[in-house]
Specification:
single chain, alpha/beta, Spore Coat Polysaccharide Biosynthesis Protein SpsA, Chain A
Length: 198
């Protein structure tokens, strides 16, 4: 169990090149914009504060509400590891819940259950076979030391980072059962998401 409240970060800095438009502005299944849905998922899951990881050139970010701070992606090619590391640096709490912008089926109940399974010094990440699901997971603040080491080597693979973190006892792997796999359906390409309504 996580001692006290935890922080969270919504990862929205991706360039959505395959989608062709910013996924944060897509309509979620409930009609809200994706950034609003995912922000509320994190709050409902129990986060005491939610950070928004985004790029400085994303104009929509200026009109957002409900975030404790905006974390600007400083490495153009660093991928989500940069936003996760920035949140681990920013928080004063023991853990950070991470959620990607393009997981429209992820629920607060699933995330809260994973948070409840954390230890005071370790987080939880789902795993399918040898593949980790790093973009809906809970990371301990202490993992920032390991993240700094790999970033210093310009290594941006979350799979390798998580394998090292599990080996070091900083993360616990949760074997993802088949019924929960649809929660990780993501929107990455044109046609994968509903049309934007005017």
């Amino acid at each position: 169990m996580i001692p006290g409240k935890f922080s969270a970060v919504l990862l929205a800095a991706g360039r959505s090149t395959r989608m062709g438009r910013d996924k944060a502005l897509l309509p979620a299944p409930d009609g809200r914009r994706m950034w609003e849905r995912q922000r509320d998922v994190l709050h409902t899951a129990g986060a005491a504060e939610v950070f928004l990881s985004a790029r400085p050139d994303q104009a929509w970010v200026r009109d957002t509400r409900g975030f404790a701070a905006r974390l600007h992606d400083g490495l153009a090619d660093g991928g989500p590891m940069v936003g996760i590391t920035a949140a681990l640096e920013r928080t004063e709490r023991s853990h950070v819940m991470v959620l990607a912008i393009d997981l429209p089926r992820m629920t607060p109940e699933w995330l809260a259950a994973r948070a409840a399974a954390c230890s005071p010094t370790a987080g939880v990440v789902a795993r399918r076979g040898e593949f980790f699901e790093p973009l809906a997971a809970i990371y301990p603040r202490e993992l920032r030391w390991l993240a700094w080491e790999v970033l210093a080597r310009a290594e941006y693979s979350l799979q390798r980072l998580l394998a090292a973190a599990v080996a070091a006892g900083l993360m616990q792997a949760y074997a993802l059962p088949d019924p929960e796999m649809p929660l990780f359906e993501n929107w990455n390409e044109r046609g994968a998401a509903p049309p934007v309504h005017a």
